[in-house]
Amino acid sequence: MSDSFAPPAALRTLQMDSLLGALTDAPRWAIYSIAAAVALTAILLYRYPYRERTLHYRNLPGPASSNFLFGDFPKVQSHPTGRVMQAWFNEYGPTVRAKLLLGDNLIVTADTTAMGFIMQHADHFIKPPAQTRMITRLLGHGLLNVNFDTHRRQRRVLNPAFHPDAIREMVPHMFTKAYELRDKLMEACADPDYADPETAAPRPEDVVAGARKVNMNKYLINTTFDVIGLAGFDYDFGCLREGNHIVTTFRNAMSELQRLTLFGVLQQMIPALDIIPSKRNKLADLARMGTSGVGRECIARKRREMESLHKDDLSKGTFVGKDLLSLMLKANMAKDLLPRDRLDDTEMAYQVSTFILAGSETTSNSLTWTLYRLAMHLDVQQRLREELDTLPTDEPSPEQLNTLPYLENVIHESLRLDPPVPESMRMCTEDVMLPLHTPVKGRDGTMIDSVPMKKGDMIITGYMQVNHNKDIWGPDADRFNPDRFDRPGIPARKAPGTWGNITSFNGGNRNCIGYRFALAEIKAILFVLLRHFQFEMLPSSPTITAKNFIIMLPWVVGEENVGSQMPLMVRPLEQ
């Protein structure tokens, strides 16, 4: 039977001749690259049994992988974010062994003591080289992907820009763009022919009087890009008005980097393959050049302004602009900073690229999931709206917003349940013993309360799983319930992290430097939106799922070809 599917001998000969001809005509570098990839794969296959026998944490429990090439990644990516890892933890305990690419092993943990140890020893646990190369290609050598003394030097210059007093001065920019977003949504709702070209057309049941189907993910991304432009660099991207080609290129690069392909994986693992032209590298290069170009332009303009005002001295007390970049430049030019600790213009420009990603993508993501949760729980949305209406102003100060306990609870619960970055991968830089809070049962039946790690070992920390831990947050930890923070004894024990006993902003000296900025922006935008609109689920009830592509993105099941989206019914409220 199988012979009937085999090609004739002549055809097989023709196929081989065609393959040889293609290789002969291929550029020399392509042939060398393919040969190197084949040789590397052969070596890995040969070494695989040896690595399994000598693995120092081989006693850790964990799932059996059925995919040598991609390891457990396909299974993890084919399910909603966090579901596969949580299933592992339910079966084996909060620390397991899993498979990475090409048969490599790694540790996966949601153990609070282990995660706290990693956060407090950041120099011992850095981003893996493959991940660093990818981020560097997109953002340059900014704060997000440098390590050791370089990270400390950059952080020292950037810290003053994120002081609470500095962020207070940026809040008016957040309200400016929040009201611009309100106006755009009002226009969409008033247009009977409104249809978002980037999402599927509304189903008949989603055509509702007084409301419109709107992809809130897109609108919020445009808003947060504009906010980081104004508050960050005194630069208006204008995304809400007419779009911006730099931002479009950046978004396209992010989308391409999020695709899991064989060649993309090989390019990440084998630096020599970067010489091969690819769509992902081209888009990442264009995005970096665009955003860092904006950075250089803004730096030059700001420096001219500052030097014209303060020719003789630029001390810590000197007034400059109120945006992040002005404050960074001020800190970088201060006389008490040693020359070796200053950032050059290229490093400063790369911070602009970094803040565009860290200050727009993650915040828009948090807002998107918050509106989704509020659309699912209209009673919570109405209660929050009533609290917001108690403030007698259209632009409350940060101090006024901070007096609203239910707003705080809703944001806290949304960030707990839907962390923008649900997990993190790190590489060990020296031999350490990783302590565990919860021992796990080894493959030989013994209990393991610490894991030996050697230089080069990989580990994934599950932020989402810690945030959903029922021992910390109660038996309903998987449910959206802002009232949980008013319960006595919640949280039941301490979890690692910078804010709110959750891991959503990381912790230690690699914590999110802009978490106060993000919280202020989320509060300002929610304040404006919820006082003017009601957000509802679509009557057609599409299934919304979460996929982790660096950031936890919303997708509609059955509409994956459209890309990431969060369609909600937006209904203007009577004023």
Automatic annotation (TrEMBL):
Pathway annotation from the record: Secondary metabolite biosynthesis
Transmembrane residue ranges: 29-48
PANTHER family according to UniProt: CYTOCHROME P450 (PTHR24305), CYTOCHROME P450 12A4, MITOCHONDRIAL-RELATED (PTHR24305:SF166)
InterPro entries: Cyt_P450, Cyt_P450_CS, Cyt_P450_E_grp-IV, Cyt_P450_sf, Cytochrome_P450_monoxygenase
Name of the molecule in the record: Cytochrome P450
Family label: Belongs to the cytochrome P450 family.
Record GO terms (molecular function): heme binding; iron ion binding; monooxygenase activity; oxidoreductase activity, acting on paired donors, with incorporation or reduction of molecular oxygen
Residues bound to heme: C512
Claim: Ribonucleoprotein is one of the keywords in the record: no
Cofactor(s) required for function per UniProt: heme
Record Gene3D superfamilies: Cytochrome P450
Keywords: Heme, Iron, Membrane, Metal-binding, Monooxygenase, Oxidoreductase, Transmembrane, Transmembrane helix
Pfam families: p450
